[in-house]
Write a structure and sequence with these properties.
Length: 151
């Protein structure tokens, strides 16, 4: 019986040594896994913080751009309603129509140029010379709609 106990003790001793070695290795691996998990959690937290900061900055920028867009829309509407803007846009339409007629109508170009020169000279006469001086001294009760006097 003593031989059996010695044999069992000899058999259990290497098994016990191998079991202790395996436990030490598994605890080291578990510690490495815990360190790796904490490292990955830290990286994930940093990335989420960066992304949330980026998203908040983008949201702030979007709200600022929306506000600027609204301000520009209001400014544009106000600018387009100022006195004289409608007349300027109408003059642009007339200019485009005159350009098209100059290109499409064969005899229109020369007649248009002559009429334009005549109108420009009459318009300049209303600002320079004796005629505007007389108009300043003797005010007429004409409406402002009449811009060019015909003699």
């Amino acid at each position: 019986m003593q031989n059996i106990l010695i044999g069992v003790a000899i058999g259990f001793t290497p098994m016990l040594i191998l079991l202790i070695i395996q436990l030490v290795k598994s605890s080291q691996i578990a510690k490495e896994h815990v360190l790796q998990i904490t490292k990955l959690k830290g990286m994930l937290t940093d990335r989420m913080d960066l992304e949330s900061d980026g998203l908040s900055k983008l949201k702030d920028e979007i709200s600022e751009l929306k506000l600027q867009n609204e301000n520009l829309r209001i400014s544009l509407r106000t600018y387009s309603q100022k006195p004289g803007r409608r007349e300027i846009s109408r003059l642009q339409v007339f200019q485009q129509a005159a350009d098209r007629l100059t290109i499409n109508a064969p005899g229109f170009g020369a007649a248009w140029q002559a009429a334009l020169k005549e109108s420009e000279s009459e318009f300049e006469k209303s600002f320079y010379g004796v005629q505007p001086f007389i108009k300043k001294v003797i005010p007429l009760k004409n409406s402002d709609a009449k811009m060019i006097d015909r003699d």
